[in-house]
């Protein structure tokens, strides 16, 4: 029947009893599957992680610039990774860096949620936030 119609006979479920087959144009079917995959790929959004590096003794203007950048990244739908870097004796007073990160969360509270809370790893304290 498939040869008479000029189509292909495609086995859908070979394990079934009796096996299930379908009569259709295989080239056209493959083309439609390829188009659906391309459309799905085009519509997906890739979430990037943007990183902002800070220091514990950050000045007010520098802090405001970092907040502005974070708001921009979050509004674009990207995650933001804040990295607090310590040098030398700053490691002994790492609560200053934690205070800066907490202040960042207060300034961005209605724009983001915390994915990973601030945690100290070596000479860096990291925190990741994502848009709401």
Secondary structure: elements and pairs:
Elements: H1 2-5, E1 8-13, E2 20-24, H2 26-43, E3 49-54, H3 60-75, E4 79-85, H4 95-107, E5 112-121, E6 124-131
Parallel strand pairs: 3-4
Antiparallel strand pairs: 1-2, 4-6, 5-6
Short characterization:
The chain is α+β, with helices and mostly antiparallel strands.
CATH superfamily of the largest domain: Translation initiation factor 3 (IF-3), C-terminal domain
Sequence stretches where pLDDT stays below 50 over 5 or more residues: none
Q: Which CATH class of the largest domain is shown?
A: Alpha Beta
Question: What would the CATH topology of the largest domain be?
Answer: Translation Initiation Factor IF3
Which CATH architecture of the largest domain is right?
Answer: 2-Layer Sandwich
Order of helices and strands: HEEHEHEHEE
Structural class: alpha+beta
Sum up the overall morphology in one term. rod-shaped
What's the main sheet like?
4 strands, mixed
Q: Ends: how far apart?
A: 56 Å
Task: Note down, in words, how this protein is organized.
The protein is of the alpha+beta class and 132 residues long. The protein has two domains: 42 residues, Translation initiation factor 3 (IF-3), N-terminal domain (Ubiquitin-like (UB roll)); 83 residues, Translation Initiation Factor IF3 (2-Layer Sandwich), CATH 3.30.110.10. The chain contains four helices and six strands; from the N terminus they run αββαβαβαββ. A four-stranded mixed β-sheet has the order 3-4-6-5, covered by helices on one side. It has a two-stranded antiparallel sheet with strand order 1-2.
């Amino acid at each position: 029947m498939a040869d008479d119609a000029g189509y292909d006979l495609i086995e859908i479920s070979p394990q079934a009893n009796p096996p299930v087959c379908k009569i259709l144009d295989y080239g056209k079917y493959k083309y439609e599957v390829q188009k659906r995959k391309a459309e799905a790929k085009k519509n997906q959004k890739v979430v990037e992680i943007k990183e902002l590096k800070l220091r514990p003794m950050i000045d007010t203007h520098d802090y405001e610039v970092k907040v502005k950048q974070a708001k921009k990244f979050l509004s674009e739908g990207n995650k933001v990774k804040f990295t607090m870097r310590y040098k030398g004796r700053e490691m002994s007073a790492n609560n200053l860096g934690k205070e800066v990160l907490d202040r960042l969360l207060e300034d961005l509270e209605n724009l983001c949620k915390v994915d990973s809370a601030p945690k100290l790893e070596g000479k860096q304290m990291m925190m990741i936030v994502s848009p709401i």
